[in-house]
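We were asked to recover a plausible sequence for a given structure. The inputs and outputs are reproduced exactly as logged, with field labels preserved.

PROBLEM: sequence recovery
POSITIONS: 404
GIVEN STRUCTURE:
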C-alpha cells in the first residue's frame, strides 16, 4: 500500500502548479511521475493531476479577481492589536471573506478594548482596497504571502474605528476567549518568563522582545518561536510522560488527544507546520487504533493532499516547504541516532532558508544542531513548570537572564 499515495499527491501538486502558472516545477514533477508511475496507477494519478489542475485554475482566477468583503466584519478578540490610539486587525466579513484593517480609536474605545475577551463587530460603511504587490526587486511581497497563507486580498481603511462586542457564537470564538485569558495570565509573570512563554506556547511576540528576536534571526533559529510540529512533539511527549507517572492508560491519553489536538488549531496561530503536525498525529492515532495498515508515507501523503486542496499555494511558502520537506525526510530516512538525524534535517533545510531569506550563516547549522534539543528538553519543560506553579524560586530560575 505504501508509495501509491505519494504519487497521487505529486500528481495533485503538479496539476495545481500548472493551474497557477508554475510550469518549471510542474514539468519536473510530471517527468518524475512518468518514470515512477506503474500501469495500474496511471488512471488514479491522471485523475489526481486533473483535480489539481482544476483547483489551481480556480485559485488563479480567485487571485486575479478575489471576492470582495461585504457586510459587517467580525474580529476575534486576539486578532486586534492596539498601539497608541491606533488599531489593526484581521477579521471575516459577513459573506465569509477574510479582510484586514487599520484605523484610529479614541481613548474610551481603546480602554474598553484592552479588557475585552469577546468577538468584536465593526459596523458601518467601509472603504476597502486591494493589497498592493511588491514593486521593487527582492522586496517582500506581503500581498502574495497573505494570499498564499490566508486567502487575504483586501484591506479596510477607516480613519476612526468603533467596535461592538458580542457573545461568542461558535467554538472558535469561545476558544479565542480562552486565549485572551491565557494572555492575561502570562502578563502576571516575570518579563523573561512571559516573553518566552508567549512566543513558544502561543506564537505571540511582544515589542519588548525585539532585541532577542533579532539575535535569533541572525543565528537562523527564529523558527523555534513559530509554533509548529516541534512544539507539538514536545507537548505530546510531556503529556505521555506525565500520564505514565500517573499510570493513566495510553488508550485514554490517545482519546484525549483526538479532542485536544483540534483545539490547538483554534488556540494557536494556524501555520502550515502546526496544521500538518496536528493532522498527521490524528491520522496516526486513527490508523493505529483501527489497524488500517497505512504506512507513515501514506499518512504524510493524505495530509499533504488535503492541505494542498485547502491551500493550493502552501508549498510556495517557506513554512510549507520546510514542514513538508523535513517531515518527508523523517518518514523516508532509516532509523539513526538523534544527532545524526538532526544534522541531515538542518542541512536539508538550509537551501530553503537561503532561497527565501537571501542569506546563509554557516553557524546556523551548528546553532540549530545544538540549541534545538535544548529548547525541546530544557527550555520548554522549564517554562511549563514555571507556568503551572510560578512560585518565586521557579520564576527566579527562569528569569535569570533578566539581570544579565
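RECOVERED SEQUENCE:
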Amino acid at each position: 500500500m505504501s508509495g501509491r499515495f505519494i504519487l497521487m499527491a505529486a500528481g495533485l501538486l503538479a496539476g495545481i502548479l500548472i493551474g497557477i502558472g508554475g510550469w518549471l516545477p510542474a514539468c519536473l514533477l510530471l517527468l518524475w511521475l512518468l518514470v515512477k508511475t506503474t500501469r495500474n496507477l496511471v488512471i488514479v494519478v491522471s485523475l489526481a493531476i486533473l483535480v489539481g489542475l482544476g483547483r489551481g485554475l480556480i485559485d488563479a482566477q480567485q487571485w486575479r479577481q478575489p471576492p470582495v468583503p461585504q457586510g459587517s466584519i467580525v474580529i476575534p478578540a486576539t486578532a486586534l492589536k492596539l498601539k497608541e490610539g491606533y488599531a489593526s486587525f484581521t477579521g471575516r466579513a459577513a459573506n465569509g471573506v477574510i479582510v484586514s484593517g487599520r484605523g484610529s480609536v479614541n481613548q474610551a474605545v481603546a480602554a474598553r478594548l484592552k479588557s475585552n475577551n469577546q468577538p468584536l463587530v465593526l459596523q458601518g460603511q467601509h472603504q476597502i482596497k486591494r493589497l498592493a504587490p511588491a514593486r521593487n526587486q527582492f522586496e517582500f511581497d506581503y500581498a502574495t504571502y497573505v494570499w498564499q497563507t490566508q486567502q487575504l486580498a483586501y484591506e479596510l481603511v477607516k480613519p476612526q474605528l468603533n467596535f461592538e462586542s458580542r457573545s461568542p457564537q461558535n467554538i472558535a470564538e469561545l476558544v479565542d476567549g480562552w486565549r485572551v485569558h491565557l494572555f492575561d495570565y502570562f502578563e502576571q509573570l516575570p518579563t523573561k518568563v512571559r516573553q518566552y512563554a508567549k512566543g513558544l506556547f502561543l506564537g505571540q511576540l511582544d515589542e519588548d522582545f525585539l532585541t532577542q528576536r533579532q539575535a535569533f534571526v541572525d543565528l537562523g533559529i527564529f523558527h523555534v518561536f513559530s509554533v509548529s510540529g516541534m512544539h507539538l512533539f514536545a507537548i505530546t511527549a510531556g503529556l505521555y510522560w506525565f500520564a505514565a507517572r500517573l499510570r493513566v492508560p495510553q488508550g485514554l491519553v490517545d482519546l484525549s488527544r483526538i479532542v485536544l489536538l483540534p483545539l490547538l488549531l483554534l488556540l494557536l496561530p494556524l501555520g502550515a507546520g502546526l496544521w500538518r503536525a496536528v493532522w498527521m498525529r490524528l491520522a496516526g492515532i486513527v490508523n493505529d487504533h483501527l489497524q488500517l495498515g497505512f504506512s507513515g508515507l501514506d499518512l504524510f501523503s493524505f495530509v499533504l493532499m488535503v492541505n494542498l486542496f485547502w491551500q493550493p499555494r502552501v508549498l510556495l511558502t517557506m513554512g510549507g516547504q520546510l514542514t513538508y520537506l523535513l517531515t518527508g525526510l523523517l518518514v523516508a530516512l532509516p532509523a539513526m541516532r538523534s544527532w545524526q538525524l538532526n544534522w541531515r534535517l538542518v542541512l536539508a533545510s538550509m537551501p530553503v532558508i537561503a532561497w527565501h531569506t537571501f542569506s546563509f550563516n554557516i553557524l546556523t547549522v551548528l546553532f540549530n544542531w545544538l540549541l534545538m534539543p535544548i529548547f525541546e528538553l530544557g527550555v520548554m519543560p522549564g517554562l511549563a513548570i514555571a507556568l503551572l506553579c510560578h512560585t518565586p524560586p521557579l520564576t527566579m530560575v527562569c528569569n535569570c537572564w533578566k539581570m544579565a
